[in-house]
Amino acid sequence: MRDCECVRDCMCSCAGEENWVDSRTVYIGHKVPPPGTEAYIPQRYPDNRIVSSKYTFWNFIPKNLFEQFRRIANFYFLIIFLVQLIIDTPTSPITSGLPLFFVITVTAIKQGYEDWLRHKADNAINQCPVHVVQHGKVVRKQSRKLQVGDVVLVKEDETFPCDLILLSTSRDDGTCFVTTASLDGESSHKTYYAVQDTKAFNTEEEVDTIQATIECEQPQPDLYKRSSTFSDVPLGSENLLLRGATLKNTEYIYAVAIYTGMETKMALNYQSKSQKRSAVEKSMNAYLIVYLCILISKALINTVFKYVWQADPNRDEPWYNQKTETERQRHILIRAFTDFLAFMVLFNYIIPVSMYVTVEMQKFLGSYFISWDDEMFDEELGEGALVNTSDLNEELGQVEYVFTDKTGTLTENNMEFIECCVDGHVYVPHAICNGQIMSGASSIDMIDSSPSAEGKEHEELFFRALCLCHTVQVKEEETVDGIKRGIHQGKATSFYISSSPDEVALVEGMKRLGFTYLRLKDNHMEILNREDEIERFELLEVLNFDSVRRRMSVIVRSNSGELYLFCKGADSSIFPRVISGKVDQVRARVEHNAVEGLRTLCVAYKRLSREEYEQVCHLLSSAKLALQDRDKKLAEAYDVIERDFILLGATAVEDRLQDKAADTIESLHKAGMKVWVLTGDKMETAAATCYASKLFRRNTQILELTTKRTEEQSLHDVLFDLSRTVLRQHGSMTRDTFSGLSSDFQDYGLIIDGATLSAVMKPAQEGSGTGGNYKEIFLEICRNCSAVLCCRMAPLQKAQIVKLIKASKEHPITLAIGDGANDVSMILEAHVGIGIMGKEGRQAARNSDYAIPKFKHLKKMLLVHGHYYYIRISELVQYFFYKNVCFIFPQFLYQFFCGFSQQPLYDTAYLTLYNISFTSLPILLYSLIEQHINMDILKRDPSLYRDIAKNSLLQWPIFVYWTFLGVFDAVVFFFGAFFLFDNTTFTSNGQMFGNWTFGTLVFTVLVFTVTLKLALDTHYWTWINHFVIWGSLLFYVIFSLLWGGIIWPFLNYQRMYYVFMQMLASGPAWLSIILLIMVSLLPDVVKKVLCRALWPTTTERIQVCLLMLVQYVLCPQSFDWLMY
């Protein structure tokens, strides 16, 4: 083994000039150079602790309070509370302080609990035991104590605790198998290789003797970019094991830690958890500012008019305000400012503090309807939907863009061999699904199963090619991933594992067709043919698959000494390289299968002479030994070797979609949502899934923005070509203008890969004229596409895509859904994040806002629950502002009749209980159970979702209507009562009505009107509605009778004694109450009737149809169709 290398001179100079260097040197086992060695600089690295929590024990209170008081409403109520404490105001500080304290406390408890769960999850990971080699022995320590340079022992089925360089494995060839489901969403097995110089070190004692350095780049989030050297020997991505991946089918490995904790690639791809706010909450804040301006205007007007009133020497401060002489002698500016604050407090109730309490309760209680939904319960998992945060319920009804992962989200990642085509002859075996023969598969169905002699040779070559051209490994055990599989007649059988589930399906398909791949032993591949004879082929070279070539090849030597090059790959990469074979027949079958959404591969071969083989070996060895541009030279060598093929045939494999995934995507499209697929998978694989899921349709024209195309043209030219293509037909209009389903417009689908996206997102260089426009051009193309597929995406790139759409000029509401840790970043970035409880762990479900068992449940969550939540909370918000305008505007008018003395119109008990007791329960219940239309109709007609799109129920015109309706009703209450009793101020016993009786009369009309207004808006009546609505009115009457019928000893005033009974004893009072309620409700009723008759929405039309149906069912003889 080589001695420890010194740090490079360039690193030394960099370290001397500044703290940051562009690479790091890792000493394996912490074996640093001897003291005094030149250029040795100790480097400090973080430990292996993972932190996903937001708060600590020490910063929770100040940080949480700071975040909560960033809300305009909370800050405003804090100021009002402080004003009530400092100066003498008409109302008690408790009326503002108590609701504010309740809101802050409830919110803090909820957010604290959620963060405690994150702390708990972090501790479970950080305290997980790992095995480390120290002084020739294996010791056990907690994961958080792992350090860069530690040599780690990882056993089968264990997860890698940090980013590691593989030193040696239990396998003689120095390979190990890994699943990276939590990183890139692929649950298949990938092969990784030990460093060539250390793969023979297989014990703790041997590993402990290694003295070497690894020089690697500083941490960066790109999962697909890895650069390092082992004592000047270049290392590639096949040597690097990433945190979160799992060791499979390998007994143990030894590896050295190079990135730990928050510097691992997976941690760098995590998005920080931020507070999400819904569009409704933003509307509430905007309305709050408007009402705050109205409040200030009211206080200012009253203050000015007060001093205009008191300018007359005969008018002074009313005696009942009990101002002291000192207060009267203060400077006029101080008195004016104090009076302004007092008016602010008096009219403060126009800002509904109780609305925020009610909204919090509505969100919290309403979230249980998702958890309780039996239709979203999965029998297989034994779990239903989960709500991790209830703050975004209504946002589910506003989604415009859906970003979904592919593997494990849209698909089950379960490949099924469907058919193969050899020289035009189609072979259709019965279903084989990842090694499991389905029931009833007792024979093989072949169409035209007796080809010619030449066809027979091609048939066997085709089957041999698929048995040899792959990277499949054979596992001779009874279990795979801890699950017993394929037990046949009590005996364990062999199973296939591979980095690609497609390869497993193909090899299993060949097994059903009579050719069984047995094993790779001593560099020889063994096949069992139809005659039960074992054929041996020496594996000479493997030309691995890559996303640019889109094919792979093997060179083998048969027992007879013949040399073959077998190649399989995408049709676009095989057909141009074919010189003979039945190309037209095979191409027709490939196109037919592609339209059906199947994943297709073409298979070809050629025989090599000894001279040709020697040339191939020379080309490959020269490219592999190149120190610079190694990948480029390998690609050039592959291009020369993989030519002049004879076409054999093609295969078709299906990546089974999740149940009802295609139906769900179609429903989302009809609802007006755009669906994007963001995946780490290959382009061909992802595109086939998009066709199968109906994301891409038969008439969809596919536009490619990929590395392959940008190598042929500049990115600038490609973008402008695509832009001209999509805008040629649509002109300046985007697809948002249309339904997305119209046959009059060409459907476009865009495919982009991660490398090209990085180029598009790159900031403009100084002096470049067009670089900065790439994002806008890209967005313009996307807006005109019905669907977008982003493949080979790193986790952070998924989040960047979501962020790009969020920040576009339309500011659409986005939703991200995925099932793996690689989806966490986009889930956190989107307005709404949904995790699927899939096979790839629970990271996505734990970090999401909502978790569902299957993708199909997204349909009901958005189209039904989201629709209901938005309708309910929109009514709640508008209704609260409306009823508070009705409540406070009479108080404003009353000041003009009491000398602007800040005298309240209503009693303190009424002021306090109006929003808490008298009017709170009906709207809370409405916001929990209202169903303006049946949920079955919402599921059957997704277009109804469009009626509430773009926050339509909280637009400014609707807000203005509710506000003016409140002002109108307030004017009716006040002046109606004022003029009706102008000449009728005596009761039957001769007593005169006073100001408290007048205020009580106005308040009674107010309570009945706003409650009956809600009753008119209710479509879904149950016994609970009746109980709460009529019970609230009854409670008000009973409370008023008790409050005014008893002399309460704890009160220092008895101004309300007998007031309510006195008012009810008056006949005109009863008449006035009924008349004023009817006049107040009339404009809203007229407006509803006119709008339904002249400009009905789709929802209102359906409501009318349902009403007709009910009436016809109840009384068919007397039903009059002409009425409708």
TrEMBL record:
CDD domains from the UniProt entry: P-type_ATPase_APLT_Dnf-like
| Subunit composition and interactions | Component of a P4-ATPase flippase complex which consists of a catalytic alpha subunit ATP11A and an accessory beta subunit TMEM30A.
**GO biological process: what's one of them?**
phospholipid translocation
EC no. given is 7.6.2.1
Cited InterPro entries = ATPase_P-typ_cyto_dom_N (IPR023299), ATPase_P-typ_P_site (IPR018303), ATPase_P-typ_TM_dom_sf (IPR023298), ATPase_P-typ_transduc_dom_A_sf (IPR008250), ATPase_P-type_domA (IPR059000), HAD-like_sf (IPR036412), HAD_sf (IPR023214), P-type_ATPase_IV (IPR006539)
* Cofactor (UniProt): Mg(2+)
Q: What class of enzyme is it?
A: translocase
Keywords for the protein's UniProt record, in alphabetical order: ATP-binding, Cell membrane, Endoplasmic reticulum, Endosome, Lipid transport, Magnesium, Membrane, Metal-binding, Nucleotide-binding, Phosphoprotein, Translocase, Transmembrane, Transmembrane helix, Transport
Which Gene Ontology terms cover its molecular function?
A: ATP binding; ATP hydrolysis activity; ATPase-coupled intramembrane lipid transporter activity; magnesium ion binding
Residues that bind ATP: 405-407, 503, 545, 568, 599, 679-681, 792, 798, 822-823
Protein's UniProt keywords contain Translocase: yes
Q: Which residues bind Mg(2+)?
A: 405, 407, 819, 823
**Every P-type ATPase N-terminal domain range:** 42-96
The scientific name of the source species is: Pygocentrus nattereri (Red-bellied piranha)
Family designation: Belongs to the cation transport ATPase (P-type) (TC 3.A.3) family. Type IV subfamily.
Protein name, as recorded = Phospholipid-transporting ATPase
Q: What is the lineage of its organism?
A: Eukaryota, Metazoa, Chordata, Craniata, Vertebrata
Q: Where is the P-type ATPase C-terminal domain?
A: 845-1097
Its Gene Ontology cellular component terms are: early endosome; endoplasmic reticulum membrane; plasma membrane; recycling endosome
Entry's localization field: Cell membrane; Early endosome; Endoplasmic reticulum membrane; Membrane
